[in-house]
């Protein structure tokens, strides 16, 4: 029930704030594009395959179409949370009363007239994306990697990928108005 309540508040906030949904969709493609470069044999691909104990045969298994579709769906979810982390105006409804009512809308309008597009820059979004990578993605990947007995090379390659991806996603979402 709580998730549903948060979802309703977020969707109402998105409607009021007139966010760029194209930026959110483009940001969702970023991890797929970065993955192509990051895990390429000319960059970290060979090292990652060795550290992940991945073989060409394993790479050919699985439904590639489903992998890309689900990657995009999960990246879209990431785009939404990166938006909440980097665009501070998304929390404005919570500051002025939480739910969209006739009483909170004037307060929200006053907040937006005072702060409008403050901190809506590419640099600010990249900063928050980088922080999400370093303080959220990296610890999760490191904990999983240690329990799976993976090397620190493996952990740093994957954490670096997510830090770069989240930084670019944050820049796109926050700066593209």
Index terms:
9 helices
Distance from first to last alpha carbon: 32 Å
State the major sheet: none
Number of continuous helical runs: 9
Q: Which runs of at least 5 residues are low in confidence (pLDDT < 50)?
A: none
Reading the helices and strands in chain order gives: HHHHHHHHH
Shape: elongated
Q: How much of the residues is beta strand, in percent?
A: under 5%
Topology record:
Blueprint: H1 2-17, H2 21-38, H3 45-51, H4 56-60, H5 64-86, H6 92-96, H7 104-115, H8 122-147, H9 152-175
Helix pairs in contact: 2-5, 2-9, 5-9, 8-9
Short description:
The protein has 177 residues and is mainly alpha-helical. It has helices at residues 2-17, 21-38, 45-51, 56-60, 64-86, 92-96, 104-115, 122-147, 152-175. It has one domain.
What can you tell me about this protein's structure?
By secondary structure, the chain is mostly helical. It has one domain. The chain is built from nine helices and no strands. It has helices spanning 2-17, 21-38, 45-51, 56-60, 64-86, 92-96, 104-115, 122-147, 152-175. It is elongated.
